[in-house]
Amino acid sequence: MWALTLLLLAVVARAAIPNLRGMLIPPKAAVPQHSFTSPNGTALPPITTVYYFDQLIDHNNADLGTFQQRYWMSWEFYEPGGPIILLTPGELDADGFQGYLANGTISGLIAQQQKGAAIVIEHRFFGYSNPYDDLTSQSLAVLTIQQAIDDLVYFTTNADLPMPGGDAVKPGQAPWILVGGSYAGALTSWTMVNQPGIFWAGYASSAVVETITDFHAYFNPIRDYMPQNCSSDVQAVIFYLDGMYAVNDTAGIQTLKEAFGLGDVEHVDDFANALVNNLYDWQSMDPDVGPGAMFFQFCDALEVKDGMNAGPGGWGLENAIYAWGNFWNTTFYNYTCGDQDVETCLGTYDTTQSYWTNTTVNNPGRSWAWMVCNQIGFYQDGPPYGQPAIVSRILKPAYGERLCVNYFPEAFSSPPEPITSETNMMYAGWNVDVDRLFFATGLRDPWREATMSAEGLYKLSTPSMPIHEGDGFHCSDLITLNGIDDPTIAAVQEAALAYMAEWLVEWEASS
Ligand SMILES: *[C@@H]1O[C@H](CO)[C@@H](O)[C@H](O)[C@H]1NC(C)=O
Ligand SMILES: *[C@@H]1O[C@H](CO)[C@@H](O)[C@H](O)[C@H]1NC(C)=O
Ligand SMILES: *[C@@H]1O[C@H](CO)[C@@H](O)[C@H](O)[C@H]1NC(C)=O
Ligand SMILES: *[C@@H]1O[C@H](CO)[C@@H](O)[C@H](O)[C@H]1NC(C)=O
Ligand SMILES: *[C@@H]1O[C@H](CO)[C@@H](O)[C@H](O)[C@H]1NC(C)=O
Ligand SMILES: *[C@@H]1O[C@H](CO)[C@@H](O)[C@H](O)[C@H]1NC(C)=O
Ligand SMILES: *[C@@H]1O[C@H](CO)[C@@H](O)[C@H](O)[C@H]1NC(C)=O
């Protein structure tokens, strides 16, 4: 037996990257190290074997030719007649996500239960699946939601899979199931809406189906479920900062920056954005997270004084500034920036930094920024007046939109507004209504307010499109072990498996 551990993705996103820590990425599951056999005992190729599919560069213009799209696959559980389960991890290098082929994850559990084969496919412009060999604006023109949907469809209808009989399992010949979490969870929904009849069933975890430009609600679940004393003290500091900003008290702001050791951060919005990093650590939490997690280290630093915990109101502003500042000095600066100087790490105004200009492939932050700037938005910023703020109201969508110009000056001469309303119209957003799509959501997921379980949305769960919420964090239900740690997550996983069994009985070959 192999032990399954979660590799928290905070590591990927560490340092110098505005907004990236809060990217829409599913958790990695450890890649099992043992060898696999098919049901009749035949040894299978290593789970890390890379396969390549000739994918169209542009689904609107086949004449532009193809590029090599990477995928991995396992037919450990496959028996003829079983389903093909397809998953993309979404906006990052898919190498390292082979755990999603085995039963440590929901996709593997579905494969095991239904005697299916599992495939992990890399999303275009991430990792080493690139239509062109750089990430310039010109190349990225073919990075759109529609091209990503069409990639999935073209794969199902054209790939000859490397397993025995793999050339005769196209949709119609075999049932296909699309699985994804986070952005890829939304892509699952968007694909089933946009290209009906290809995937017989879907599983969408923490799926951010509704794109939202001003996504301050990202911080609501964090504000509500973090230790209340810590939330109160963070609010006190943010209120103080925003108050000084409102009256242009630059000297006061400078003193505050200095308490954090961030006196050299030139722009106040970059300072406000730096403070958000403490909150992004919430996203990488999972149900068995221990007190050592960075988020809890942060709250302990603020709330434990001389061995005593503050009450729900916290210790108050003065202590909060000192304790939060000291935490940056002793721990968090190094954790976030390492050896970099403050402006290199936290500044966003020097557009000559290689961070903005480097167009080398396998840079998920850059490719994702292209999607954010154009179609997806989700700028994580301060709330409107009248709501308690754990993030400064200095941060507005304009902060993120300015970064779009930094990255892609050839494409944007001024800060672009993403066309989120068009995206929601094209792919239905919260109005999705398709058969056999299972939505899994998490109560403590910071992305919850863009999912089918968003506050106030009251989407009805139905037998043909069930919505099941557990107490988990972001995409917790994708990982088998999280069901063992939290029975509410186990219930989500069990419900999904039951639906898959029922839905697959209904499938009939059509060609
Ligand atoms: C075992 O299954 C593989 C396909 O996985 C097939 O190629 C092979 O012929 C089978 N062997 C036997 C003995 O059934
Ligand atoms: C998961 O799959 C492995 C084979 O890869 C099998 O030995 C194990 O029993 C399965 N675990 C469960 C819980 O079914
Ligand atoms: C106060 O903060 C501590 C340390 O983070 C935490 O363990 C405790 O639950 C919090 N108490 C309240 C009432 O918020
Ligand atoms: C804010 O204060 C700075 C320095 O004191 C000054 O240069 C700037 O013009 C002021 N801005 C506004 C909007 O009052
Ligand atoms: C953090 O370090 C800076 C620079 O050394 C210092 O000015 C500041 O007082 C320190 N803050 C705390 C709370 O110790
Ligand atoms: C900074 O972090 C690195 C890696 O975690 C660690 O090795 C190093 O000792 C830290 N430096 C300081 C000054 O804390
Ligand atoms: C550009 O990015 C690539 C890949 O991340 C990296 O290997 C290379 O060193 C970077 N080049 C510069 C000039 O920063």
From TrEMBL:
InterPro entries: AB_hydrolase_fold (IPR029058), Peptidase_S28 (IPR008758). Transmembrane segments: none annotated. Keywords: Glycoprotein, Hydrolase, Protease, Signal. It comes from the Eukaryota. GO terms for molecular function: dipeptidyl-peptidase activity; serine-type exopeptidase activity. Residues 1-15 form the signal peptide. GO terms for biological process: proteolysis. Belongs to the peptidase S28 family. This is Peptidase S28.
